[in-house]
Design brief:
Blueprint: H1 9-20, H2 25-48, H3 58-106, H4 129-159, H5 192-202, E1 218-219, E2 223-228, E3 243-248, E4 251-252, H6 275-289, H7 308-326, H8 331-356, H9 361-386, H10 390-411, H11 421-438, H12 444-447, H13 470-476, H14 478-486
Antiparallel strand pairs: 1-4, 2-3
């Protein structure tokens, strides 16, 4: 029996603070403090001037209703984008299931006349040819299933702006991707500075090059191997029998130098309103007065040429193309593979669209200015009725309005309240794909004719069931089965 250890007060406090940092209060506490100071000042002035600074609370009714509708629309728009992201992730899970099931169950062993890249090593006189072809097919199919898992993981890192493939959950699945030279523009902004910082922390080898984090693997000693000749990089799984000797450097990785699978954003006091406004103004002034050039501009929002999920989709496409050329599957199976892969890329495109098209800045800025103006005028309107209770009332009202605004903005970006992509990738996709490939495909000739299969009387089980097993019904013949089905 496993007994959970009681939480210490320090651990309880840590959990409480971590939970508190996930609330909207942690994003707007400076604005609430400023509101409290402002309300206190207005109340003191009204007290000593006998309410000369107070005004009629008509604006509370008029502008409060309008502002409430606008903030509600803003929050609803953010939640709609959040919901759409969840739907697109469910499409990724669905199509990974379909592709894995179709590849693992519907791709048979290659025919005897199918030439593979190492076909010259397996002659017709070789008695082990069939076993090798089956082994090669299993390796191909398992690698493709691994690519499906890698696709979901790569989408997770890509959406968070984490470049490259050097992550503990991604690199073991796609070490061959380190030799790619595709220049796919990344629509999602990268957080390259954070990655460089973590990479320096996780790298212990002083000779390890971390100056260029472009998704390439570390390279070991070169050696000569015989590889098939090909017309392009994606054609190296085609059927040429001529071979050439090339000197290649096989990639390897040091597990200690890989970045962690999850890089949660650190909660920073600068993210709380209104500090981002001050830093935004400071960056603009610094850019204009210090005359920063393009090379000195911040690196976080430069488009990167590192769209790993799209590169993985090319490998999946090349596998489907190879199946089509080998003629090992029928057209309906190819159609399912093409449709599912297209849905994966479509989900990636939809997620990119959500991140690349945020709420317009003019709308957000105007909403913030109206909210600030409304909260600033609250003490003038509440003094005549609440007097000193104006201070807590203004703070509470500001907390409501600011809270909804920062909650709407928080939903749109990756933070502690974002979609649990780790759960989708590790707990659902990874475990399901492993379960599919862990056992051979079920054989209908075995499970359909099992002695335990009482296919006529579902839910009615008895010990003496010898005359109702499938083998007995086979002996009785077609007419007996049809008669029993009618009864």
């Amino acid at each position: 029996m496993v007994v959970d250890k009681p939480l210490t007060w320090l651990k309880t406090l840590s959990i409480f603070l971590d939970t508190l940092s996930s609330t909207a209060l942690s994003r707007c506490w400076p604005a609430l403090i400023i509101t409290g100071i402002w309300s206190s000042s207005i109340c003191v002035l009204n007290y000593y001037t006998h309410g000369k600074l107070s005004i009629q609370p008509t604006l509370i009714t008029v502008f409060g209703t309008v502002l409430g509708f606008i903030i509600s629309f803003r929050t609803s728009s953010s939640f709609e984008r959040y919901n759409e992201g969840a739907k697109l992730w469910s499409h990724i899970v669905l199509n990974c299931r379909i592709l894995a099931r179709t590849v693992w169950f519907h791709v048979p062993a290659p025919p005897k006349d199918c030439h593979r890249p190492i076909a010259d090593e397996i002659t017709d006189q070789d008695p082990a040819k069939t076993h090798k072809e089956y082994a090669m097919t299993l390796i191909e199919k398992k690698t493709v299933v691994n690519l499906l898992e890698a696709y979901a993981i790569a989408v997770k890192h890509y959406l968070r702006g984490e470049e490259g493939i050097h992550y503990k959950d991604l690199y073991p699945l796609v070490p061959f991707l380190s030799s790619l030279h595709y220049s796919f523009p990344a629509i999602v902004p990268s957080k390259n500075d954070e990655i460089r910082r973590l990479r320096r922390r996780h790298t212990h080898d002083p000779n390890h090059d971390t100056s260029e984090f472009s998704g390439r693997a570390a390279v070991g000693p070169t050696h000569e191997v015989t590889v098939p000749g090909s017309l392009s990089r994606l054609d190296n799984r085609r059927f040429w029998t001529d071979t050439t000797t090339k000197t290649i450097a096989p990639p390897y990785y040091d597990p200690e130098s890989l970045l962690p699978a999850e890089l949660p954003p650190r909660h920073c006091w600068r993210a709380a309103f209104p500090f981002p406004i001050f830093f935004w103004v400071w960056r603009i002034l610094k850019k204009h007065f210090c005359k920063l050039g393009a090379d000195d501009a911040p690196q976080n929002f430069r488009p990167r040429k590192n769209n790993v999920p799209l590169e993985i989709s090319l490998y999946l496409t090349s596998y489907i193309s190879a199946l089509q050329t080998r003629k090992t599957v029928d057209n309906s199976t190819l159609g399912v593979l093409h449709a599912s892969l297209n849905q994966l890329v479509d989900a990636l495109t939809g997620l990119e669209r959500i991140l690349a098209t945020p709420i317009p800045f003019s709308y957000s800025s105007h909403l913030w200015m109206v909210t600030l103006l409304y909260c600033a005028t609250l003490p003038f309107q509440l003094w005549s009725t609440l007097e000193w209770f104006t201070i807590p009332a203004s703070v509470i009202a500001s907390c409501v309005f600011y809270g909804f605004l920062v909650a709407g903005e928080e939903i749109e970006r990756y933070d502690k309240n974002d979609l649990n992509m780790e759960y989708l990738v590790e707990k659902i996709i990874r475990k399901e794909l492993h379960a599919i490939t862990a056992t051979p495909a079920p054989n209908p000739a075995i499970w359909a004719f099992s002695k335990e299969n009482n296919f006529l009387q579902v839910g009615q089980y008895s010990k003496d069931n010898s005359d109702k097993i499938p083998a007995a019904w086979v002996d009785k013949g077609r007419e007996e089965i049809l008669s029993a089905l009618e009864g």
